[in-house]
Design a protein that fits this description.
Layout: H1 2-12, E1 38-43, E2 48-55, E3 74-77, E4 87-93, E5 96-97, E6 100-101, E7 115-120, E8 125-137, H2 143-147, E9 153-165, E10 170-181
Parallel strand pairs: 2-3, 4-9
Antiparallel strand pairs: 1-2, 1-7, 3-4, 5-6, 7-8, 8-10, 9-10
Length: about 180
């Protein structure tokens, strides 16, 4: 099982959010699980909540972003780890869309200790506690730290940030909130 998780983590290491100008990816599928899929996320300290849509890889092998016409929509990487399972589950949302603030516009202000609640299809709610929030240049993204093996259920909230490059139509950095299940 550990070897399978290592393979999944290595493949997920290439994962980026397409709408942020990500690079080609080739993540694999997570280990089959009986854990219910996530349906809703809430971050009380930011006053935000959203249903969760499934995000998959698009034709260019990048993680599909939530729709730009709904900047308040979050999604989870449905081919990855489910929240509550061993490893880092991923929820992504926009920082903005066409100049409209996105759901994760204030993700960078989240403090350690903040709670993130994830409701699942079986109506169970699991809670994660934020341990830290960091900004990483896309060119130096710490893949192993974000997507690597964990010995506990973890959660990564990811959005774009930093300087926007209008010529490339993408942000140059990513914000990542790291969290552990409580």
């Amino acid at each position: 099982m550990r070897r399978t998780l290592s393979l999944v983590a290595a493949l997920l290491a290439l994962l980026t959010l397409a709408a942020c100008g990500g690079a080609p990816t080739t993540p694999g599928r997570a280990v089959a699980t009986a854990t219910a899929v996530p349906t809703y996320v809430e971050v009380p300290d930011l006053g935000i909540s959203s249903t969760l849509i499934d995000l998959h890889l698009g034709p260019s092998r990048e993680l599909e972003a939530p729709p730009l016409d709904d900047p308040g929509q979050a999604g989870w990487y449905a081919d990855g780890v489910r929240p509550g399972d061993l490893g880092p589950a991923v929820i992504a949302a926009h920082v903005n869309a066409h100049g409209t603030p996105g759901l994760f516009v204030d993700l960078h202000t989240l403090s350690p200790g903040a709670l993130v609640h994830v409701r699942r299809a079986d109506d169970s709610v699991i809670t994660f506690r934020v341990t830290n929030v960091e900004r990483f240049p896309k060119a130096e993204f710490p893949t192993a730290r974000v997507y690597g093996d964990l010995d506990h259920p973890g959660l990564r909230l990811i959005t774009c940030g930093g300087e926007y490059d209008p010529a490339e139509r993408r942000y140059l950095d990513n914000w990542v909130a790291f969290a552990e299940m409580v």
